[in-house]
Design goal:
This protein is of the alpha+beta class and about 270 residues long. It has a five-stranded mixed beta sheet. A four-stranded antiparallel beta sheet has the order 1-7-8-6, covered by helices on one side. A two-stranded antiparallel sheet has the order 10-11. Strand 3 and strand 4 form a beta hairpin. The chain starts with a helix and ends in an 8-residue tail after the last strand. The chain binds a DNA duplex (16 and 16 nucleotides) through loops.
DNA sequence: CCCGGAACCTGAAGGC
DNA sequence: TGCCTTCAGGTTCCGG
């Protein structure tokens, strides 16, 4: 499931292969992957454009093009962008292929058809209300305090809310809360300044470590070269069904929070 | 504005 | 062996 560390890794590993390349054509195997504009306009505006830069905003990947259009990509839960050459066999569940001059291909593989691409002038029209980037210098404990102020929802749900913080999803929310020793059901407003300080540190630490490990390959995450990441080997609680807490040895618990599987240690993260 | 739940979508895995 | 249920979860939409 691509979250911030996975999308960051994809951006970094895609860049050297596609930066400066020109899109010569698009093969669509499932039209529904194009969210905006129409399929016809998407194809005509994209063809012939040079890729001038890559950036990431939250879980969105943005390719800047020479005509000032932006190709915005969201992989949602099961999407991957795989590099290939002319001779490469098309992976199963490929929904779109971007052909570049020189023979490079980018396969958008997405078994569950949740992902999408947009061709827009301003990426903010796609990402709507994106909160602060957790790894930017301006993401301070004060900013986190402000984002959680007066919020009654469980902190787990708030961490996964892209308008509160950009880029965190189910896995890293669980990991950050464990590292900060905060129960996922605590309300945002109930956190003390000390707990917010711990959480702020835990979020940055968890995301940075995961980027260092090239992302977590629990299910359906592949890097552009087809390799997996290794961040999940460092997970303490996330997807820890049947395992014990590495700190205190108690069984890791799984509870639903906003219909999402939430893993935590009842000893290290005491109930509210 | 805030909150929680449903819907979207399909393959993998486990139970009986 | 095969059918059924559960799980995986990012985002948007809707009702209260």
């Amino acid at each position: 499931m691509p979250e911030l560390p996975e999308v960051e890794t994809i951006k970094n590993e895609l860049a050297p292969h596609i930066l400066g390349g020109t899109i010569t054509g698009i093969t669509l195997l499932w039209d529904g992957i194009v969210k905006k504009p129409s399929v016809e306009e998407f194809r005509s505006r994209l063809t012939g454009q040079k890729i001038t830069s890559l950036s990431r905003h939250g879980k969105y990947l943005v390719l800047s093009l020479s005509n000032d259009d932006l190709l915005v990509v969201h992989l949602k839960m099961s999407g991957s962008l795989l590099l290939g050459r002319d001779s490469t066999q098309q992976p199963e569940y490929t929904r779109a292929v971007f052909h570049l001059d020189g023979g490079t291909k980018i396969f958008f593989r997405d078994p569950r058809k949740f992902g999408g691409v947009w061709l827009v002038r301003d990426w903010k029209t796609v990402t709507k209300n994106l909160g602060p980037e957790p790894l930017e210098a301006d993401f301070t404990p004060q900013v986190l305090t402000q984002q959680l102020r007066n919020r009654k929802a469980p902190i787990k749900a708030l961490l996964c809310d892209q308008s509160v913080i950009a880029g965190i999803g189910n896995m890293y929310a669980d990991e950050a809360l464990f590292a900060a020793r905060i129960n996922p059901l605590r309300s945002g407003a109930s956190l003390t300044p000390e707990e917010i300080g711990r959480l702020h540190h835990a979020i940055q630490q968890t995301l940075r470590a995961a980027i260092g490990s090239k992302g977590a390959s629990i299910v359906n995450y592949y890097r552009p070269g087809g390799e997996t990441g290794t961040a999940h080997f460092d997970f303490k609680v996330a997807h820890g069904r049947g395992r014990n807490c590495p700190n205190c040895g108690r069984p890791i618990q799984r509870i639903p929070v906003r219909n999402r599987g939430t893993y935590f240690c009842p000893g290290c993260q005491p109930a509210p």
